[in-house]
Amino acid sequence: MPLLRVHNLAMSLDGYVAGPHQGLEHPLGVGGERLHDWQFATPSFHGGEGRDGDTAGERGVDDGFVRRGETGIGATLMGRNMFGPVRGPWPDESWRGWWGPNPPFHHPVVVLTHHPRPALTMEGGTTFHFVDDPELALERAFEAADGRDVRLGGGARTVRLYLRAGRVDELHLVVVPVFLGAGERLFDDLDGGPTGFTCTELVSSPAVTHVQLVRTGQDG
Q1: What are phi and psi of 139, to 5 degrees?
Q2: Out of 74, 120, 156, 205, which could bridge 61 as a Cys pair, Cβ 3.0 to 4.6 Å?
């Protein structure tokens, strides 16, 4: 059965997955970029080639987790905060995502939003679909995935929504040794946190610690 999977969700030591004051100048919030330095340094994040100064093709623990996050995925489900900084009703349809004309997904993407708009087809096989109901959005994502798994992206509120509903099958957290002090916390308003998960991997690289959680039971 296809799964709903969260991958490479980076979290600070004080529990934040994004910094404060998210907006056009700070897509990840002020200081939030530090949560993803480990990922930016991997060859797979750059399509298999290292950045200037990196060793192209160098592989390690972090790179392996980045690659696993793309394996077997047929569609992505994300919240509106991940799609862009615009809040409330769309003033127009000029905002087309953070990623330019050829987004990195290359498959259907369902955006959960209170303000649906027509589907947006981009280069490289990515089409954004805007849906205003969580269950319908999940259904559309699995239909679009056509038998493959669905990757659940951010932001924190969207992940919490599906954790609270008991719909997340795999949760990969990346604990980054920094403090943000403010921003978007992952486990707020979850009555003590999600239950029904078992830790199947706990692996550290020189940069971060990877925690792989798999649903093995019902929420308590």
Answers
A1: -60, -45
A2: 205
> Cis bond leading into 193, ω under 30°?
no
Distances (CA, A) of 182 to 21, 52, 94, 161, 162: 9, 32, 31, 20, 23
Phi, psi of 52 (to 5 degrees): -55, 125
Contact 13, 175 (CB under 8 A): yes
What DSSP line would sit under 203-219, residue for residue? EE-SS-EEEEEEE-S--
C-beta neighbour count of 98 within 10 angstroms: 12
Residue with tokens 């490479």: 8
Rounded CA separation 126/182 (Å): 33
Task: Provide the 10 A C-beta neighbour count for residue 96.
Answer: 14
Q: What is the pLDDT of residues 2-27, one digit of tens each?
A: 999 999 999 999 999 999 998 888 98
What are the tokens at 198? 């078992």
**Reported pTM:** 0.91
Reported as a single tens digit per residue, the pLDDT across 167-189 is: 999 999 999 999 999 999 998 87
